[in-house]
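Recall the central idea of this unit: under ordinary conditions, the amino acid sequence of a chain determines the structure it adopts. In this exercise we apply that idea directly, starting from the sequence alone.
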Amino acid sequence: MLLECRHCEARVDAKELFSYEEGNSPEVPFDAKFTFAKCPVCNSPLLASQMDDPEGKQGWLKPFRLYPPMDSQFYPSVPKDIGRAFVEARTCFRARAHTAAVMMCRKTLEGICSAHGVKSSGTLAAQLKKLKDNGVIESRLLEWADALRTMGNEAAHGVESVISPEDARDTIEFTEALLEYVFTYRDKFEEFKKRRAKAPRT
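Accordingly, the structure predicted from this sequence is:
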């Protein structure tokens, strides 16, 4: 079971120790599975939950870490407003509000643009292109972001549109990857280049 270990700051193949399945009940109105596990590297305890696939195609869906709580600490370099929007997207997904989850991912995209000085005037497509023109994202990331924008448009404007659990999950994962790149790895690489430029040549 792949889970994020907060102590190791990495996604690990957690060792499952005990699992419990909960059927339909007033408290949990859907099938759910709870797994107690530990990190194979540092032995930190992990608790994860999984929902059943309502379409019956995959069995249990991708696990979500309950403990340590995912929402209490997000990437520290992500601005609070943007992090809050993305955390809400994950919360909506856990509640099976897939349309709302995708819409919050779109709002997260808008926040990324705003945080990098791209004004909200104009379409989101134009804002994302401006991010690329400004060197914030590359061509492949623009392709990712534009696909997320399109999914968000379908969720926001198409009453007849049905967002599947798979599409909602993928949207969240791609949004998170975009956040990691823009606010973490990109900045770290820029710092690395500056540090190397000042280092004495050998």
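The chain has a mean pLDDT of 84.
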